[in-house]
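Quick one: structure tokens for this chain, please?
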Amino acid sequence: MEWREANEVRWLEADLPGARAAFTTRTAGSLKESHQPALTALGIASAPVFSGKQVHGAELAFHGDGEDSQAPAEVDGQVIRSPGPVGLVYTADCLPVAVAGPGGVAILHCGWRGLAAGIIARGAQAVSATAAAIGPGIGPCCYEVGDEVLTALKVPTPPPTGRKDEPSGTFRPVGTVDLSEVARRQLRQAGVEEIELAGLCTRCEEGLFFSHRRDGGLGRQGGLVWLDGEGP
């Protein structure tokens, strides 16, 4: 995964089998507002872009080979079967994960709920994935969670800190989670051997990324994926 820049837009780019994945930064603006600065910088300004209403689930939409009509209304993954279309997910602490294989390429929106629901396995299976790229997301340095998240992701609960309880009704974190490591483990379990990680925390890198935990707000970077003209 390498840094690229064009038209004052910076992004991380990963080469996948027969495909490319890009993870944007704040320099492209919020992709929820406009895709165009990012698409122009990436050299795919005229490509059809597919995204969905993300609900932290594990549903996938399929594009190419006559499958577009199967897209559900609420979807957290975009599967591309043929060259031309671009799949897009929006993130602001959740992970964008791209997977590629003989069956095409997919981009997955992976928060803790999606990871617990099996979106990695479903996306990997959809394209018979052999390679993956995990983009920037909130890191273990900043992702404090409660028991619900630890249990859902099968992460061991850490020992008590000895800290006094906060007032009733206030969120009390009991540990931290490394979402990238959870995603990497699930990719391995799905049979994906070649995995790249961005290794960047969206909450720490204020100059580069939007972060819901740090800023609140509606700013979103994007994870994009598309097939090369020759296909996978």
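Residues 160-168 have pLDDT under 50 and may be disordered.
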